[in-house]
Amino acid sequence: MHSLWVKKNELAKAQWHDSDLPALAEGQVLLAVEKYALTANNITYAVVGDGFGYWNFFPTGDDDWGIVPVWGFANVVASENPDIAVGERVYGYLPMASHLLVTPTNVQDGGFIDGAAHRQGLAMIYNQYNRLGQSEGPLEAERAIFQPLFTTSFLIEDFMRSNDWFGAEALVMTSASSKTSLGLAMVAKSLSPSIKRIGLTSAGNTAFVEQSGLYDEVLTYDNLSAADAAQPTVSVDFAGNGQLLGAIHAHWGENLKFSSLVGATHVSERGGADDLQGPKPQLFFAPTAAESLIKEIGAPAFRARVDEQFAAFVAGASAYLKVEDLNGREALQSAYLAMLANEVAPSRGLMCHMT
Question: In terms of domain of life, where is this protein from (predicted)?
Fold first, then answer.
């Protein structure tokens, strides 16, 4: 088997590593990774990997090197589990690798949980795998590209709405071209239509963001001052740019009712957010929010609510997103490095094929 190892303290250092296929113990299943989506979300996993335990899902055995998690599809190629047959397909949290050994528990018709010892204590949302039967379904690329991010979008909107938007009348989002920001704009438009949606983006991405039709107002980062500072506003920062966050806090001041931090799409600019005006930024961690909402309304209702909004989002996304299929080690490694360097246009949806 082969996997793409990344140096934890030097993320631009990546190399393929070959190893023997693992032997299966009783109850275990070997998955062959078929394809996965590559997005800025995966870069966030790497950037905050130590603090949030993302390196722990697919350990390399070398403390200096890790495997970046991705979302995608895999095939069961060997099984010592009587409830799961060779030939089944699954969707879930995978390594940038050709294979993954899992220990299915809580096996049901719709899915299972990986009960591997090293994954105990890690966020449950990442340990669940959907069983898909043996044939490919519709919109699989869109599902892998958007769904993990979209669930975060859904949860942010639910959190804000549950808190009556903290008294705000507007929502400002950084990295407005990112998939999570687009998803949040769409869910807010659907479920909280009275909240004005303001997207902040770079000059080069302005046309793309406007084309999405999901924002009431689109501003470039250097034109933030054009936003109405008197309107009570909440901010959701996807960029991880401390200087930009400081500018947002300075512009709205006490009219900024809540400041949420989600992810980091601009890796090199995370500093410079000291002594902020207004509210203290709060980190939004989607797995915790998901577990809380699932406890409140139950897993079936949670999935149904997310799926309803997701179906509407995907239906509109095809107008501004082009899915690209990538094959081969060199192409997959280059795609990772390009995403790390923030060089992938938001109109491109990357699907990486391992087989």
Answer: Bacteria
What's the domain count of the chain? 2
For 85-138, how does the pLDDT look when each residue is reduced to its tens digit (9 = 90+)?
A: 999 999 999 999 999 999 999 998 889 999 999 999 888 889 999 899 887 877
* For residues 25-51, average pLDDT: 92
Residue 310 lies in a domain: no
Per-residue pLDDT at 271: 58
Query: Would residue 245 count as lying in a domain?
Result: yes
Residue at a domain's end among 263, 288, 313: 288
pLDDT at 252 over 60: yes
- CATH number of the CATH domain containing 128: 3.90.180.10
Output the pLDDT for position 315. 82
SS (H, E, C) the chain: CEEEEEECCEEEEEEEEECCCCCCCCCCEEEEEEEEEECHHHHHHHHCHHHHCHHHCCCCCCCCEECCEEEEEEEEEEECCCCCCCCCEEEEEEECECEEEECEEEEECCEEEECCHHHCCCCHHHCEEEECCCCCCCCHHHHHHHHHHHHHHHHHHHHHHHCHHHHCCEEEECCCCCHHHHHHHHHHHHHCCCCEEEEEECHHHHHHHHHHCCCCEEEEHHHHHHCCCCCCEEEEECCCCHHHHHHHHHHHHHHEEEEEECCCCCHHHCCCCCCCCCCCCEECCHHHHHHHHHHHHCHHHHHHHHHHHHHHHHHHHCCCCEEEEEECHHHHHHHHHHHHCCCCCCCEEEEEECC
Packing angle of the helix pair 286-297, 299-317 (nearest 10 deg): 120
The reported pLDDT for the residue numbered 51 is 78
